[in-house]
Amino acid sequence: MFSKPPPPPTQPPDGVHIIPCTGIDLGPRRMVVTTGLIIDGRLDPKKLETSLSSLIAEKFPRAGARLAFRNGVYEFHIPHAFDAHTPPVVFTAEDHPEPYASPARPSIEHLRRSSPSEPWLCTLPVLDEYFRSSTCPSMTDQYLFPNTPLLHVHVSIFDDLTFLGVTSSHILTNALGIGTLLQAWTRLLTGGALDDIQGMPWDMQPFKPFTVKPDSRTKIPIMRGMFKLGVFATISFIMRFMWRFWREPKEDVKLVRVPKVFLEERKRTIMDELTAEGSSEWVGNSDVLMGWWLQTLYAHRSDTKPVHILLPVNLRDEPIYPSDLGPELTSLSAPFINNAVSAIPVPPLTPYALRTSSLRVVAQHFRRAINAWRADPVGIQSDLRWRCSYPLKALFPCPPGAEYAVQTSWRAAKFGELDFSGALQFASSGTQERQKARVVGVIPMMTSNRNRPMRGGGAVLMEDQGSVWLSAVSSVKDWGAMRKTGVIKFLEV
To answer: Per CATH, is 16-106+127-206+412-448 categorized as 3.40.50.300?
Structure first.
């Protein structure tokens, strides 16, 4: 008869700045992501820790935030000051005074040596213990413990290599945000003055203009490429999804190496054909790469089930703001480490279409989708308005009876260009200090409190002087079927 009054709202804690998490931050909220870098040299952990702590405290205080869930809202709590009790980052290190190569450890020599001109793939080496400490959180809920920094960095140091893992809840950042932080960090390590490094203001909220309070009169179209399903369609989607997972429960993550000359030859052929026809259309290396990879990934199938493809896209350099907000808001004006991503929906393709179409046709399919997305700023703004205004509402990436594939790219993070030479130290064996400590491999890791299948997902991880490197997830059964087609070499390591 008498309803219980709601509890009083929790008051904000002292000593912190508070920034609400956006809907863009909260989409991947259940995931904890590690970006693992393999660096060709023995680094000094003290230099790494001291320089990174200074950089965060002075230039990127949001990277030193804590995560809170207060009054039903996720928030970044940014300490007013950092000290030994309130560190900007959890930094851990393990020293191994010997070279890495050992029969007891996963082989990574294929990442360091020159390779032939044809693509190949191999199972992603399991290097978790070298990128994450035993105390590193593996679920987002563990970041909600009081005074737990969102950023954890772990280094495993050998005489000839350093493994550097950067871990956080996906709520804080994505690969391109990590790249922004690492670019500033390596600049500091190689002699750049801290005062000369442009940082990120603690109160920067570039997506606040897209957040509205929906009511019955507010009509915000859902994000393009996503689906809001009714009750029966939702049940159908879940049942089909679980049935497929039950039939093929085991997944494997592969590392794919694609030589740049391989891509350039195919791009040149396509562009020559377009030029001969008098066409003004064009394709880029990324279109050729994605078209070739999707054709490879589905080469063992010829069915007509639609595959809905989403391309996560970096918003940092996009003119995403309405003109009435002022010229200063045409794009992000400062480095931004938090999530800044939307998705380009690519019209569905079927395995049969991928198998029977030329690479030119598939590459043009991707380029046209990207061009159409960029030509529609109003649509981009509408997508952001929905995501920011309904932060916890779930959408589906395809309708029942279809499949989806999320193909992202970390190339803009420029991991392959990072230079850690400012933190080099002499190896215990007495070998001379190298001139440059380069990144020779990027290893992604992801954990969650849910056993969520990731098949169909993939990322362009990095590029070096001669290659582009990808990761891809599929079922063990599908990898076995692909191997039988002979469309790509499976490297045994």
So the answer is: no
